[in-house]
Design goal:
Elements (H helix, E strand, L loop, with lengths): L5 E6 L6 H14 L4 E4 L2 E2 L3 E3 L2 E3 L1 H10 L5 H4 L2 E2 L6 H8 L5 H14 L2 E5 L15 H8 L3 E6 L4 H14 L4 E9 L4 H14 L3 E6 L14 H8 L2 H10 L9
Parallel strand pairs: 1-7, 1-8, 2-7, 3-6, 8-9, 9-10
Antiparallel strand pairs: 4-5
Helix pairs in contact: 1-2, 1-9, 7-8
């Protein structure tokens, strides 16, 4: 398999723990000896500081990956209003430029074995004032996707809709991660198998709710160990093919 330079971590919606999953994957890969970069091209709901508006998500990703890159390379655009970035950009009169994002990505791509790029919100959330979306961003970067969704009722519809659009757009999907999974009943027990059967996409992991994680201040707790324990063989198989220096869990 050709070595991948980047993976786009996409959510089916907002507030599903996509930042945490991206950060924990970065931390796990770092422990595997992989030179890992992280990026969140566009964020909203940033924190005002003397240096400008900064993203808690980007700070968390930087800490998790253990990198020293300038925060503006990791997160070229951070909007103040906690809403769809493209709408916030219109209100705040910010020109979110895809060429600037591409330049930052190329910079990180050259520095690392693999760069994890976290999207903002779901697939068709507007990122720019002209309403370019995550679809456009993924195509521009030309990288495959890991899709993160909930493990609870309703996730089959959200995941399958997102998968269908990605496939129609010709975007490669590597696998699916179900996050904040709780085995509360028949729905949660059957979701992973049903999603695999409908989509034909492998479930890379079924990750439980992880306590002790904080974005501000950045704190990973036992998140990396929990993630590693709940990733499935399909993830490790893919990773070993992509990055042969990775030899599986516990290596």
């Amino acid at each position: 398999m050709k070595k991948a330079n980047g993976i786009f971590v996409l959510g089916t919606d907002t507030e599903i723990g996509k930042t945490v999953i991206t950060g924990l994957l970065a931390g796990l890969l770092r422990e595997q000896g992989i030179r890992i970069g992280v990026m969140k091209p566009v964020a909203s709901g940033g924190i005002p500081t003397p240096e400008g508006i900064i993203s808690e998500d980007a700070i968390f990703l930087k800490e998790a990956a253990g990198v020293e890159d300038d925060l503006r390379k990791i997160n070229p655009y951070c909007l103040k209003n906690p809403m769809a970035p493209g709408v916030a950009a219109r209100i705040e009169k910010v020109d979110v430029s895809f060429p600037v994002i591409a330049e930052s990505y190329r910079y990180l791509q050259q520095r690392y074995d693999l760069t994890l790029v976290e999207g903002a919100g779901g697939l068709i959330v507007p990122l720019t004032p002209s309403f370019l979306t995550n679809i456009d961003e993924i195509k521009m970067l030309s990288i495959p996707v890991i899709l993160v969704g909930r493990g609870t009722l309703g996730t089959i519809n959200h995941i399958c809709l997102t998968v269908r659009v990605l496939q129609q757009e010709g975007i490669e999907i590597l696998g699916i991660i179900l996050n904040r999974y709780q085995e509360r009943g028949i729905v949660e027990e059957t979701n992973p198998q049903v999603i695999e059967e409908i989509t034909g996409i492998k479930i890379f992991g079924v990750i439980p709710q992880i306590d002790g994680i904080s974005l501000n201040p950045p704190r990973l707790g036992r998140g990396i160990a929990t993630l590693e324990d709940n990733l499935r063989p399909s993830w490790w198989k893919y990773l070993e093919e992509m990055l042969p220096s990775c030899t599986g869990p516990g290596s």
